[in-house]
Design brief:
The complex is a heterodimer of chains A (298) and B (421).
Chain A (H helix, E strand, L loop, with lengths): L1 E3 L9 E5 L4 H12 L4 E4 L11 H8 L4 E5 L11 H21 L3 E5 L11 E2 L10 H14 L6 E6 L1 E3 L10 H11 L1 E5 L9 E6 H14 L1 E7 L4 E3 H9 L7 E5 L9 E2 L2 H6 L8 H13 L3
Parallel strand pairs in A: 2-3, 2-4, 4-5, 5-7, 6-14, 7-11, 8-10, 9-13
Antiparallel strand pairs in A: 1-11, 10-12
Helix pairs in contact in A: 1-6, 2-3, 3-4, 5-7
Chain B lengths: L4 E4 L3 H12 L4 E4 L3 H8 L10 H7 L4 E4 L10 E4 L14 H13 L5 E4 L7 H5 L5 E5 L8 H6 L4 E5 L8 H8 L5 E5 H32 L3 H9 L20 H16 L4 H14 L1 H11 L6 E5 L14 H8 L4 E5 L13 E3 L3 H5 L4 E4 L11 H7 L4 E3 L7 H6 L3 E3 L5
Parallel strand pairs in B: 1-2, 1-4, 2-3, 4-5, 5-6, 7-8, 9-10, 9-12, 10-11, 12-13, 13-14
Antiparallel strand pairs in B: 6-7
The chains are: A alpha/beta (298), B alpha/beta (421).
């Protein structure tokens, strides 16, 4: 599903990161800096992607030799309604219009695993996209907009659940568990006392997302790639791992489940084939690391 | 007097069929327009590796004629058109070579000679290949790489595609088929062509069941090896069912049939979803070794060296078509590899850091992991203690369980196989 246009890694002339202030954007930016890659980091302060002038402003900023990483989006916590969908599409429309004008050497579009049906337990890049909500529809539409751009290699990255220090979102998962322990001294898991948190999910550390993105930039990778580890763990295991970081016993209690149990596993064979020596951060290590950063213990 | 049989196309199928016909007492005229290939055959240098084949060629030398002159086929009463049909990466057949040979055969043979299409052709091909005033049959070949001689000498049955199944077979052709004493099943061309594909679909279905459930065994602590005997004793499944888990289908023939079914289903609007699922499952299991290696070695060891035993897609053949070993080595390019195969030379491997070992244990020397990618019988004789002594780290991937799991674990090896934890 992906091809490396540079079989040997080669630094891009410059990488433009659109959405550089976001959770993943910041991590990608720092990783690029660590690799001594020249970066133009754009945030909403620099360009309001919804403004009609955005396309011209971006076109003036882009160079034909740039690699462009498009991360900017209104995330589900900002809304999952039609209005948010339209705003997100307008943002992408302006980015595409700018790229059509200026051209670029490589476009990396950050999509989401929301393009896959949530009830599918096993997913690979070959799984047909069939989003069930407007957030998934938005990403899938933006993927198609990106792929429709002529004359540039396009990579679509579809990350699974991303966690790490500095995650501003309050989605059900490790970040929310930390907050819950700090504020309420307990973790609430969906389900009954018999089956709470049994749902299996693949979670990837934000540093791994950044490292893989940079590898793709260095190889000028094109195609579609899921960013997942290939290892799924239950919410219960995650809750226990988070709880184990704190002194004393943390209560893990059930809260009513609103949606049926689903599981999600990723077949990451394409990622392994593309980067056979890539080492993922294990969930245990990732959670220890995040806890250390957020609590200042390391 | 026994009929003279011709075989046109001296690749795997034609060569084995011709040699086995000679073993059955027929005079066999083996034709190929490739002069170099025929010259090699005359020197008894065979292009394929099959158990017993070399001995049979030697033993039947008087009845075997290798020729590059199509005119020699004029002496034949029955001529088999038997070149191997090449396939591309998607399993699609290239029928140009078989068309060319068929034309040569029609032109070179006597009008009353029986022409038999033995190459595997898609449904509808044979009827379209008929010529006025000529006799053409389609015979299902059941060649299995590594067991080709056994299958040709002792067929289970003959499936014969006919223009008119109600009409008795010509005397000469009936004599050829009758020499084996097995059931003969005449049917219309299209049925015979689809019968071959049907057989292969049943085999792939069995293998897919085995692979699907073997993978589940690996996760939940069951052992597929304990389950298989229970299945074999079920009459609806049977003692010879294909139930051994493997690294997906390979070799080209099964892939071709699956591609043919999908193409026909698409053309006629029938459902081939299950066939596509078999293909996906095959691809998934092919990568078992890479997944396991990545988890256990590649993602944990700095600059690992991997020993790979076996390059052929299966034992007793030198074919590497869709070989899981070759697919694995393709991904292992960033790492050092040490390879050994009893028959396939290491030169088939396109790898910048590949060491061609002269023995199994030399391949293991200093490696961090060993992957036994082809179940050659001789690999089963390796001593796990010796393997452990030669390896630097102790990971062994033995998908086909040619080694004894317990002996490996006693030798201190971390042992991984299909169908069990």
């Amino acid at each position: 599903m992906i091809t490396h246009q540079h079989p040997q890694p080669q630094k891009p002339d410059r990488v433009v990161v659109i959405g550089a202030r976001g959770f993943i954007g910041k991590a990608v930016h720092s990783r690029l800096k660590a690799e001594s890659v020249t970066v133009l980091a754009l945030t909403s302060d620099d360009v309001d992607l919804m403004a009609p002038a955005a396309a011209d402003r971006l076109a003036a900023a882009f160079r034909p030799t740039d690699a462009v990483v498009m991360l900017a989006a209104l995330t589900p916590d900002k809304g999952r309604d039609a209005s948010t969908l339209v705003k997100n599409l307008v943002m992408m429309q302006h980015v595409c219009a700018a790229l059509e004008k200026s051209g670029c050497a490589h476009l990396v579009y950050f999509s989401s695993d929301a393009v896959y049906p949530p009830e599918l337990s096993r997913v690979s890049e070959e799984t047909p996209a069939s989003p069930r909500d407007l957030y998934g529809v938005m990403h899938y539409a933006r993927e198609i907009m990106a792929r429709s751009l002529a004359g540039m290699p396009v990579l679509v990255l579809r990350p699974t659940l991303v966690y790490g220090a500095g995650d501003p979102h309050r989605a059900y998962g490790p970040t929310e568990f930390w907050r819950s322990v700090r504020e309420e001294g307990k973790i609430e898991l969906r389900g009954t006392s018999d089956d709470m948190g049994v749902e299996m999910r693949d979670r990837i550390h934000v540093a791994d997302v950044a490292a893989l993105t940079v590898l793709c930039l260095l190889h000028r990778t094109a195609g579609t790639l899921n960013l997942a580890t290939g290892t799924s763990r239950s919410f219960r295991e995650v809750a226990d791992l988070v709880a184990s970081q704190f002194a004393g016993k943390i209560a893990v209690v059930p809260t009513p489940r609103k949606i049926p149990i689903t599981h999600r596993y990723y077949d990451v064979i394409n990622l392994i084939e593309a980067f056979p020596d890539f080492r993922f951060t294990s969930l245990d290590e990732g959670i220890r690391r995040v806890h250390g950063k957020t609590s200042g213990t390391n | 007097m026994k009929p003279v049989i011709g075989f046109a196309g001296m690749t795997h199928l034609g060569l084995v069929s011709g040699v086995c016909a000679a073993e059955k007492g027929f005079r066999a005229i083996c034709f190929d327009s490739d002069e170099a290939r025929v010259a090699s055959l005359k020197r008894r240098e065979l292009p394929v590796s099959e158990p017993e084949l070399d001995q049979l060629v030697k033993r039947n030398a008087e009845r075997l004629v290798f020729t590059s002159s199509a005119g020699d086929l004029a002496a034949c009463d029955v001529v088999y058109v038997a070149p191997d049909v090449p396939t591309d990466d998607t399993g699609a057949s290239d029928l140009a070579p078989v068309n060319a040979v068929l034309n040569q055969v029609f032109a070179a043979t006597r009008r009353e000679a029986v022409v038999v299409m033995l190459s595997q052709v898609p449904p509808g091909y044979t009827r379209g290949a008929m010529r006025p005033s000529r006799t053409l049959y389609y015979q299902v070949e059941t060649l299995i790489f590594g067991r080709a001689v056994e299958r040709a000498l002792r067929p289970e049955r003959y499936i014969v595609g006919c223009e008119n199944p109600g009409k008795p077979l010509p005397e000469a052709y009936a004599a050829v088929l009758g020499a084996h004493g097995c059931p003969i099943l005449p049917m219309r061309y299209e049925s015979a062509e689809l019968a071959k594909i049907s057989i292969n679909c049943c085999l792939v279905a069995s293998v897919s069941v085995a692979n699907t459930l073997a993978e589940l065994c690996e996760k939940i602590g069951a052992d597929w090896g304990e389950i298989v005997p229970a299945l074999r004793l079920d009459r609806r499944i049977g003692e010879h069912a294909y139930l051994a888990p493997g690294l997906g289908i390979a070799g080209g023939n099964l892939e071709r049939d699956l591609a043919t079914v999908c193409a026909l289903a698409d053309r006629h609007g029938t459902d081939a979803g299950v066939v596509r699922a078999w293909v996906a499952n095959s691809r998934h299991r092919r990568d078992w070794a890479l997944r396991t290696l990545h988890r256990e070695v590649l993602a944990t060891v700095q600059n690992p060296v991997i020993a790979v035993l076996g390059l052929a897609y299966k034992q007793d053949t030198r074919s590497v078509k869709n070989s899981p070993a070759i697919a694995l080595l393709e991904v292992l390019k960033p790492f050092g590899v040490r390879v050994f195969d009893p028959v396939v030379p290491a030169s088939v491997v396109n790898h910048p850091r590949c060491y061609a070992a002269r023995s199994e244990l030399e391949a293991c020397e200093g490696a961090d992991a060993l992957a036994l990618m082809t179940p050659w019988a001789q690999f089963g004789k390796l001593d796990p203690v010796a393997i452990a002594k030669h390896l630097r780290a102790k990971t062994v991937l033995d998908p086909y369980a040619v080694l004894k799991a317990e002996a490996c674990r006693r030798a201190g090896l971390s042992y991984y196989t299909l169908g069990a934890r």
